[in-house]
TrEMBL record:
Similarity comment text for this entry: Belongs to the class-III pyridoxal-phosphate-dependent aminotransferase family.
Top-level taxon of origin: Bacteria
Protein name per UniProt: (S)-3-amino-2-methylpropionate transaminase
Keywords: Aminotransferase, Pyridoxal phosphate, Transferase
Organism: Nocardia vermiculata
CDD domains: OAT_like
Bilayer-crossing regions: none
Length: 413
């Protein structure tokens, strides 16, 4: 008899029978409002009919057309379709399977293109679970403990996490940029620094949006020193924040973006996008993989982009995001020290009476929400932030339904 390894930890007790739209249906016969969206993946909702249809049709003609052996049409179609949604200068794409692989692809491209060994990441960032990406992840030691030595060549600079420092956004941004300069003077010389790798909104790190002056400060330093600016859009891309890509809130031009999650409505597909002159500096044949750019996943991704556009999901994420953030803020009790977010990424940070992180109450709230039929996740260094990430198709009534359950949960705590 085999059993699932205890290495996997499950956030809720639910075993899913099937999903439809914003709901998951458990084998217990209950319906759950899913404000986890498979960790920000099922943006078009569970089993959107157009995505299902595209995948079904593709399965009947080609499942796996290994992309370093042959080329296939869904991959070519997706490459072409992405031109409609990517920033114009990011005109070359490479595909893999998971977010971690995409971040590794960006890392390799950055090192190969610049010939420089080091990268700077930003404190609280999450970039994945492979050894290279765990080495770049600083949102909690739980992602990197126990399998050292990690990859070398990674330096960590502050992110403007104003709430944590207890400072204004201005002061936190001044500090972050000043420390970045100090790191470039004391730890990794600019001519040895290949890239800054940063999330537009810290995801796993606690749903903390960056700001325009911070990202423009990174851009200015990147230009001055020939360093690449890599924006990890794995959680923030494809409409999640109320713009197609998270960095578009901050008037900043990235050199490389990573994409995954919302790209293919649940099929494992990821990628990077960069200007073709930059992509041409990658060593041919240095990236690839057996399953990258899977035909069914690519067909689902094309359908996903069609749905996002034709159903106005980016605008819906912006409007429903405002509704959700305002509702969560209005209902926050004294156990919640901060509520923040961007679009349909909304986090409530639980703190004790003395302002310390309160992971126990956050966990209790998340579990109680599941019992009341609302699926949520936690995040943050101390797992004391309860996050809401509904599908982008979420309706105003479903936001109200979630807010009503959340109010009940907070009342019962
Ligand atoms: C910003 C960011 N980067 C990278 C990853 C890693 O993606 P994956 O879990 O698909 O490897 C994640 C996953 O949550 C993420 O949110």
């Amino acid at each position: 008899m085999t059993a699932l390894s205890p290495v996997l930890r499950q956030a809720t007790p639910v075993t899913v029978d099937h999903g439809e739209g914003c709901y998951l249906y458990g084998t217990d016969g209950r319906r759950y409002l899913d404000f986890t969206a498979g960790i920000g993946v099922t943006s078009t909702g569970h089993c959107h009919p157009r995505v299902v249809e595209a995948a079904r049709e593709q399965i009947g003609s080609l499942i796996h057309g290994q992309y370093t052996t042959v080329m296939h049409q869904p991959l070519l179609r997706l490459t072409e379709r992405l031109a409609d949604v990517l920033p114009e200068h990011l005109d070359s794409v490479f595909f893999a399977n998971s977010g971690s692989e995409a971040v590794e692809a960006a890392l390799r491209l950055s090192r190969q293109a610049t010939g420089r060994p080091n990268v700077i990441v930003f404190h609280g960032g999450f970039h994945g679970r492979t050894v290279a990406t765990a080495s770049m992840t600083t949102s909690g030691t739980r992602f990197s403990a126990g399998f050292s030595p990690l990859m070398s060549g990674v330096h960590v600079a502050p992110f403007p996490t104003a709430y944590r420092y207890g400072w204004s956004e201005e002061a936190a941004t001044d500090f972050a940029l000043r420390e970045l300069d100090y790191i470039l003077t004391t730890l990794t010389a600019p001519q040895e620094t290949a890239a800054f790798i940063v999330e537009p909104v810290l995801g796993e790190g606690g749903y903390i949006p960056g700001n325009t002056r911070f990202f423009q400060g990174l851009r200015e330093r990147a230009d001055r020193h020939g360093i690449l600016l890599v924006m990890d859009e794995i959680q923030t891309g494809f409409g999640r924040t109320g713009k197609f890509f998270g960095h578009q809130h901050f008037d900043v031009r990235p050199d490389i973006i990573t994409i995954a999650k919302g790209l293919a409505s649940g099929f494992p597909l990821s990628g990077i996008a960069a200007p073709s002159e930059l992509m041409a500096k990658a060593w041919p044949g240095s990236q690839g993989g057996t399953y990258g750019g899977n035909a069914v996943a690519c067909a689902a991704a094309v359908a996903t982009i069609d749905v996002i556009e034709s159903e106005g999901l980016v605008d819906n994420a912006a409007t429903r995001g405002e509704q959700l953030l305002a509702g969560v803020r209005a209902g926050a009790t004294k156990q919640i020290g901060d509520v923040r977010g961007l679009g349909l990424l909304v986090g409530s940070e639980f703190t004790t009476a003395t302002g310390e992180p309160d992971s126990a109450t956050a966990a209790a709230a998340q579990q109680a929400a599941a019992r009341h039929g609302l699926l949520l996740l936690t995040c943050g260094a101390y797992s004391n932030v309860v996050r809401m990430i509904p599908p982008l198709i979420v309706s105003s009534d479903q936001i109200d339904e979630a807010l009503a359950i959340w109010a009940r949960v907070l009342d019962e705590l």
